[in-house]
Amino acid sequence: MGLHLELRNVSKAYGGHLAASDVSFGIERGKLIGLLGPSGGGKSTLLRILAGLETPDTGDILINGKRVNDVAPQERGIGFVFQNYALFKHMNVFDNIAFGLTIRKAKKAEIAERVNELLDLTGLRGFEKRYPHQLSGGQRQRVAFARALAPRPELLLLDEPFAAIDAKVRKELRTWLKQLIETIGITSIFVTHDQDEAVEVADEMLIVQQGRLEQQGTPVDVYTAPKTAFVAGFIGQSQIIAQPRELVGFGDIALPETGRAIIRPEFVEAGRPHEMTTPSASAKGTVRRVFFRGAHLELEIDLGGNRLAAHRSLDQEPIQPGEEVSVLIHRIYVVTDHNAVMVENPLKVDPLPVHI
Amino acid sequence: MAGAVTAHLSDSASVRPKHVTEKPIVRWLLTGIALLFLGFVVLLPLVAVFVEAFQQGVNLYWASITDPDAVAALKLTLITALISVPLNTVFGIAAAWAITKFRFRGKNFLITLIDLPFSISPVISGLIFVLLFGAQGWFGPWLDSHDIQILFALPGIVLATTFVTFPFVARELIPLMQAQGVQEEEAAASLGAKGWQIFFRVTLPNIKWGLLYGIILCNARAMGEFGAVSVVSGHIRGETNTLPLHVEILYNEYQFSASFAVASLLVFLALITLGVKSFVEWKSAQRAKGGEANGTAS
Amino acid sequence: MKGSKARSVLPGFGLSMGFTVFYLCVLVLIPLAGLVVKTTGLTWEQFWNTVTSGRVLASYRISFLTAFFAALINLAFGLLVAWVLVRYRFPGKKLIDSLVDLPFALPTAVAGIALTAIYAPNGWIGSLLDPLGIKIAFTPLGITIALIFIGLPFVVRTVQPVLQDFERETEEAAVMLGAYRWRTFRRVILPELVPALLTGFALAFARGLGEYGSVVFISGNMPLKTEITPLLIMTKLEQYDYSGATAIALVMLLASFLMLLFINYLQWRSNRRAIAD
C-alpha cells in the first residue's frame, strides 16, 4: 500500500507565531490517525492545511502522490468534521446530510438512497426531520459525521470530534466511531488533546508540539519508545528526576551530562521488603500519601528527596502513609533537550542500556 | 431594537482566507455600491443642510439662529427635554431593574407594552393627548373651568414628547442588564449591601455607558420630535414652537436659508449623539477585551 | 406575578415594578384607551364610512405601498451595508458605521427639508432629473426615498449582529462539502439571516407606515396622490374633525399592533432557537 497522504516540509506562521514548523509525514491508506498534542500546539492548523482551509507558507501537500497545494478545498475530496459540528441550523438532519450531494447536483433518488444509508449507519433513523437544536450533543456529532461522509470522500478529517461532548457519552462515541471508520475503511485523521482518546482510538499517532512533529508511530511505540523529551513527558503519567545518577541501580551507567530522568508509576515497584522480586536493586523510601485510583492504589513515595509515584494492587496488603517501603525502579527514560533514551535497571536485568 | 449598542467591528473578522470571502473585484464592487448608497441616502442630506444653511452667508446664518423666535424655540426645546428625559430615565432604570433582576409572569407582555410608543405613528401619539385634554376631550371641560392650559402649551408638548421618547432608556438598558445577570448584585447582597447601595455601587457602574447612550438618544429624540409635538403645540410663534416646528414654519414661509440654519443646530445634536454612541461602543468593546484577557469572556 | 419574586434576594421589586406599571398606565395605556373609547362614540356605520372613504383608502394605499417598497429596498441595501461593514476592511469604516445611525438621531423634520432640497425639481438631484421628465419630490417616489432614509438603520442594525456572530466554521463546512462562494451564501448564510432580515424589514415597514416629519415636506400632500395616512389624520384635526381623525388613527393603530405582534413573534422564534442551541 502506497502513501495516501503526505506532507513535505510544511511551515505556517501567523504573525510571529509558528503554527507549523517544517512538518513532514506520510499516512498509509485506510489508517486511523490520532493527531495529539497540547492545546495551541498546531494540531488544528495542520488539519486545516490538509483540508485546504489554510494555505501553508512553504512545503507541499500530496494526496495519492499528487501535489494539491493549489487545489481548492472544495475539490480535494476531503470530509471534515468540525469541533462544534457547524451544522446548518436552518436545515433538518436529512438536508444537512444531503447538502454535499445536492451541491454536486446528484439525482434526487440517489441522494435519498445515500442519506438513508448513512442514517442507518449512524443510527439516526427516525431523526431525519429534526433540526440541529432539537438534537443532543452526541446526535449532532453523528449528523456532522454523516454529512461529511455523504459525498464519499477519500479522506476524513475530524477536529477534536469529542471535545464538546459529556465525558460519559464520549467513551461510547469513541468506540462507535472507531468501529464505523473501520467498517467504511476510510483514511481518517482526528485531532485530540486527550491522550487516552488517541491511544484508544488511533492506529497510529502523530505527536505535535509548538508546530513541530515530535514523533509518529503506533500508540505502543510512542508509549514504550518515546523519541523526544517532550513525548516522554507528555505521554503517560510521569515524574521528572533531575539527577538520575542518585537512583539506586542507575549510578554507573553512561548518562549525558544534562540528562534528566522521567519515571512512570507503572515501572516503579514499591512494597514491603519480602514482596520485592529483586531486593538487591531496591532503595528505601517513605510513603507520603496513598490515593485510591479506582482499579488500583497510587502511592506517593519520598525517595531521598525525590517524589515518585507507584502503583499497588488492591489485592495486596494495604500500606499506610508514613510506612517505610522498598522501591525498585524497573525502567527510566533519560531525556535531554533533544532525545530520550530508555534505560532498564541494570541491577535487575541486562547491564546495557537500550538505545532507540 | 435597532440602535442598541450591540455590534462591535472587530478587525480580525475582516481578514478572511480566500475560500470564505469574495474575489477582490466583488469585494470592491459591493463596498462601492454600499458606500454609494450610504452617500446618497445618508450623507447627502447631511451635507445639504449645511450647504443650504450657509448659502446666503454667515451673517444670515447667525441672524437666523439668534432671532428671538429661534431663541424662544430653543429654550422651549431645552425645557421640554429637561423635563421628559429625566422622567424617562428614572422610568427606564426602574423598568429595566424590575424586568431583568426578577422573574415574574407576563414579562414579555410588559416589554411589548414598553415598546408600544415605538410602533405608533407620532401623529397618533399627539392625537391621544388632544383627545384627553382638548376642548371636546375627557378632561377638557374640567380643565377649562379651572383655567388650566395643557394643550397648545408647555404641559402638552412635554406630555407628547415624553410619550414618544418613553421606551428609549429602558430599551437600551434591558438587553444590557439581561446579559449581565444578577450574580454581582446577589454577591453584593450576600455581603450585606442594602437596596440603593447595591444599585449605586454594583449595578450603576456596570451599566453607566449604556445608560449614557440611552439618555443621549432619548434626548436627541426629545429635542427632535416633530409629528407628535406638531399636533399638540398649536404653533404659536415664540411661545409654543419647538426647534423642529420653527424649522417647519420658516420653511413654509420660504425662508429656506434661515430654516436650514436652525436645522443645522439639530444636526449638531444628532452628530453629538452619534459621537457618544461610538464612544460607548468603543468603551464596551474595551471592556469585553479586558474581560477576555482575564479569562472571563462575555 | 405572584410567588416568583420570593426567589430573589435582591430588593426593590415592589418599588421598581410599581413605578413601571404606574408610569406606563398614566403615560401610555390610559391615553391610548382614550382613543379607543372615543371611537366607540361613533356608530359602526359612521366609523366604517369614515375609514373607507375614497380619500382615506387612497392614503392607506400610498402609505402602505411606499412603506413596503422602501422597506424592500432597505432589505436589499441594508443587507449589503451590513455585509460590507462586517466582512470587509476599508478606510473610514468606523465613521461610516456610525453614520448608519444618523436617520435615528436626526430629527425627522430636518431630514424632510434636506431631502426636499435635494430632490425638488430645482434641487441638487431633482434639477438633473427634471429635464429627463423624472420627478421625485412631490410624487410617491419622493415619499419612498424619505422612508428609505428613515428605515435604513433598522435593517442594518438587526442583520449586523447576526452576521457578526455567524460562525466561520459553518461556512467552512459548506466549503468542505463542495460549495463555492455564491452557493455558500445562497444556501447556508442567507437562510440563517432570514429571521433577522424579516425583523428588520418589519421594523422598517412599521416605522414607514407611521412616519410623518420626513415625509410631509417631500410628499407635496396632494389628496389621492401623495397624501399619507398620518397626514390625513393631521388634516382632519386641523379641520376639528376629531372623530374622523380618531377613526383613522384606530385603523392605523390596529395595523401597528399587527406589525408589533409579528415582530415579537419573529424575535420569540429566533430566541427560542438560540436558547435551544
TrEMBL record, chain A:
<feature type="domain" description="ABC transporter">
    <location>
        <begin position="5"/>
        <end position="235"/>
    </location>
</feature>
<dbReference type="Pfam" id="PF00005">
    <property type="entry name" value="ABC_tran"/>
</dbReference>
<protein>
    <recommendedName>
        <fullName>Carnitine transport ATP-binding protein OpuCA</fullName>
        <ecNumber>7.6.2.9</ecNumber>
    </recommendedName>
</protein>
<dbReference type="InterPro" id="IPR017871">
    <property type="entry name" value="ABC_transporter-like_CS"/>
</dbReference>
<comment type="subunit">
    <text>The complex is composed of two ATP-binding proteins (OpuCA), two transmembrane proteins (OpuCB and OpuCD) and a solute-binding protein (OpuCC).</text>
</comment>
<dbReference type="InterPro" id="IPR003593">
    <property type="entry name" value="AAA+_ATPase"/>
</dbReference>
<dbReference type="InterPro" id="IPR050093">
    <property type="entry name" value="ABC_SmlMolc_Importer"/>
</dbReference>
<dbReference type="GO" id="GO:0015418">
    <property type="term" value="F:ABC-type quaternary ammonium compound transporting activity"/>
</dbReference>
<keyword id="KW-0067">ATP-binding</keyword>
<keyword id="KW-0813">Transport</keyword>
<dbReference type="InterPro" id="IPR008995">
    <property type="entry name" value="Mo/tungstate-bd_C_term_dom"/>
</dbReference>
<dbReference type="GO" id="GO:0005524">
    <property type="term" value="F:ATP binding"/>
</dbReference>
<dbReference type="InterPro" id="IPR003439">
    <property type="entry name" value="ABC_transporter-like_ATP-bd"/>
</dbReference>
<dbReference type="InterPro" id="IPR013611">
    <property type="entry name" value="Transp-assoc_OB_typ2"/>
</dbReference>
<dbReference type="GO" id="GO:0043190">
    <property type="term" value="C:ATP-binding cassette (ABC) transporter complex"/>
</dbReference>
Automatic annotation (TrEMBL), chain B:
<dbReference type="GO" id="GO:0005886">
    <property type="term" value="C:plasma membrane"/>
</dbReference>
<dbReference type="InterPro" id="IPR000515">
    <property type="entry name" value="MetI-like"/>
</dbReference>
<keyword id="KW-0997">Cell inner membrane</keyword>
<feature type="transmembrane region" description="Helical">
    <location>
        <begin position="71"/>
        <end position="97"/>
    </location>
</feature>
<keyword id="KW-0813">Transport</keyword>
<feature type="transmembrane region" description="Helical">
    <location>
        <begin position="28"/>
        <end position="51"/>
    </location>
</feature>
<keyword id="KW-0764">Sulfate transport</keyword>
<keyword id="KW-1133">Transmembrane helix</keyword>
<dbReference type="InterPro" id="IPR005667">
    <property type="entry name" value="Sulph_transpt2"/>
</dbReference>
<comment type="subunit">
    <text>The complex is composed of two ATP-binding proteins (CysA), two transmembrane proteins (CysT and CysW) and a solute-binding protein (CysP).</text>
</comment>
<keyword id="KW-0812">Transmembrane</keyword>
<dbReference type="Pfam" id="PF00528">
    <property type="entry name" value="BPD_transp_1"/>
</dbReference>
<comment type="function">
    <text>Part of the ABC transporter complex CysAWTP (TC 3.A.1.6.1) involved in sulfate/thiosulfate import. Probably responsible for the translocation of the substrate across the membrane.</text>
</comment>
<feature type="domain" description="ABC transmembrane type-1">
    <location>
        <begin position="74"/>
        <end position="277"/>
    </location>
</feature>
<protein>
    <recommendedName>
        <fullName>Sulfate transport system permease protein CysW</fullName>
    </recommendedName>
</protein>
UniProtKB/TrEMBL annotation, chain C:
<dbReference type="GO" id="GO:0005886">
    <property type="term" value="C:plasma membrane"/>
</dbReference>
<dbReference type="InterPro" id="IPR035906">
    <property type="entry name" value="MetI-like_sf"/>
</dbReference>
<dbReference type="InterPro" id="IPR005667">
    <property type="entry name" value="Sulph_transpt2"/>
</dbReference>
<keyword id="KW-0764">Sulfate transport</keyword>
<comment type="function">
    <text>Part of the ABC transporter complex CysAWTP (TC 3.A.1.6.1) involved in sulfate/thiosulfate import. Probably responsible for the translocation of the substrate across the membrane.</text>
</comment>
<dbReference type="Pfam" id="PF00528">
    <property type="entry name" value="BPD_transp_1"/>
</dbReference>
<dbReference type="InterPro" id="IPR000515">
    <property type="entry name" value="MetI-like"/>
</dbReference>
<feature type="transmembrane region" description="Helical">
    <location>
        <begin position="188"/>
        <end position="206"/>
    </location>
</feature>
<feature type="transmembrane region" description="Helical">
    <location>
        <begin position="132"/>
        <end position="156"/>
    </location>
</feature>
<feature type="domain" description="ABC transmembrane type-1">
    <location>
        <begin position="60"/>
        <end position="263"/>
    </location>
</feature>
<keyword id="KW-1133">Transmembrane helix</keyword>
<comment type="similarity">
    <text>Belongs to the binding-protein-dependent transport system permease family. CysTW subfamily.</text>
</comment>
<keyword id="KW-0472">Membrane</keyword>
<protein>
    <recommendedName>
        <fullName>Sulfate transport system permease protein CysT</fullName>
    </recommendedName>
</protein>
<feature type="transmembrane region" description="Helical">
    <location>
        <begin position="98"/>
        <end position="120"/>
    </location>
</feature>
